[in-house]
Design brief:
Distance between the termini: 38 Å
Strand content: over 45%
Structural class: mainly beta
Radius of gyration: 20 Å
CATH class: Mainly Beta
CATH architecture: Beta Barrel
C-alpha cells in the first residue's frame, strides 16, 4: 500500500476512536485490554467542501487503567492531582489528503497534504450524578497542526473548548451509552490559510484571490451512541458543523456553511489482563 493510501485511511481514525465508546459507572475492569476492529466514516474533503469522501478504517483498540497513566477510549492522559474532577490528557485529530485533480474547487492549486494535530487537553468535571452514570465536563484541548509529509510543516494552532455530557444506560436502551458534545473552534491564521487561502497566481474568474484571517472557525455539535459487549464493542457518531460567521466563511473554497459527518465501527477484544482494577470514568 502506498504512503498516500495509508495516510488516507488513518487520518480520520482519531475521530472514530474518540467517539465510539463512552464512560460507564465505577466497575472492575482488566488493567489492560487489546483488540482490533474496523470502521467507516463519511466526511467532507475539508470543512466547508461540497466534495464528500468515505473511508474504511482499521481500528486498533488498547486500554490501560494505571494509577498515574491511563490510555483508554477517552485518550491518553495522566493524573495531575489527587482529584477525580481534573484530567490532563492528549488530544489528537487530523484531516485527510486532498488531490487537487479530484476537486473542482481546488483545480490548479497545490494538493492538500494529510494533516495531524496533537496537544494537551484539560478536562474539568462540572457535574456528576450520585451513581456516576451521568457527567458533564468542560473540555479544553489545544493542538498544534502539521502536515504529514517527509518534511512536516507546522500549520498553526487549534483551540476547541466544548461541553461534553455522557449518559450511561440510556433510557429504554440498557447497556447503551450516549455522548453529546458541543462547542466553538478557534484557529490561527496559518491554520485557516492552509485550507482556505487562494494565492493571486491561483485565482480564476470563479475563484478570486483570498487571504483568510485567524479567529473563530465555526461550531460543532456531536452525538455518539455505543455499547460494550463482553468480547467486542460497537458504536456510531454523527457530527454537525456550522461555519456561519467563521473567519474564512467568505473564502471561494467554502461551498457549504453547514454539513453532517458520521461513522460506525466495531472492535473485538483479543486479549486482556488477568488483574482487575476499579475504574471510575
Amino acid at each position: 500500500m502506498r504512503l498516500r493510501q495509508i495516510l488516507r485511511a488513518l487520518v480520520p481514525l482519531p475521530a472514530l476512536l474518540a467517539l465510539l465508546a463512552l464512560p460507564a459507572a465505577a466497575e472492575q475492569k482488566p488493567l489492560w485490554e487489546a483488540g482490533a476492529g474496523v470502521g467507516v466514516v463519511s466526511l467532507p474533503a475539508w470543512r466547508g467542501s461540497d466534495d464528500r469522501r468515505s473511508y474504511l478504517l482499521p481500528v486498533p483498540y488498547f486500554t490501560y487503567h494505571g494509577d498515574f497513566f491511563r490510555a483508554d477510549r477517552h485518550g491518553i492522559r495522566g493524573v495531575l492531582i489527587d482529584s477525580d474532577r481534573v484530567d490532563l490528557g492528549i488530544s489528537v485529530a487530523g484531516s485527510p489528503p486532498v488531490g487537487s485533480g479530484r476537486s473542482a474547487a481546488r483545480a490548479g492549486m497545490p494538493d492538500l497534504h494529510a494533516t495531524g494535530e496533537i496537544g494537551p487537553q484539560l478536562d474539568l468535571t462540572l457535574w456528576r450524578s450520585a451513581d456516576r452514570a451521568r457527567n458533564l465536563k468542560l473540555i479544553l484541548p489545544l493542538r498544534a497542526a502539521f502536515t504529514l509529509t517527509g518534511s512536516p510543516e507546522q500549520i498553526g494552532w487549534i483551540f476547541s473548548p466544548a461541553l461534553n455530557l455522557d449518559v450511561t444506560d440510556v433510557a429504554a436502551l440498557p447497556g447503551w451509552n450516549l455522548g453529546l458534545r458541543s462547542g466553538p473552534i478557534f484557529a490561527t491564521r496559518r491554520q485557516h490559510a492552509y485550507f482556505y487561502d487562494v494565492a493571486p497566481a491561483q485565482a480564476t474568474a470563479s475563484r478570486p484571490a483570498y487571504a483568510a484571517g485567524g479567529g473563530y472557525s465555526g461550531t460543532q455539535f456531536l452525538a455518539a451512541l455505543s455499547k460494550r459487549f463482553p468480547r467486542y464493542w460497537v458504536g456510531s457518531y454523527v457530527r454537525y458543523d456550522s461555519l456561519q460567521a467563521a473567519a474564512f466563511d467568505d473564502s471561494p473554497l467554502v461551498s457549504r456553511r453547514a454539513y453532517l459527518a458520521g461513522g460506525v465501527g466495531v472492535a473485538w477484544i483479543i486479549g486482556e489482563s488477568g488483574h482487575t482494577v476499579t475504574v471510575d470514568d
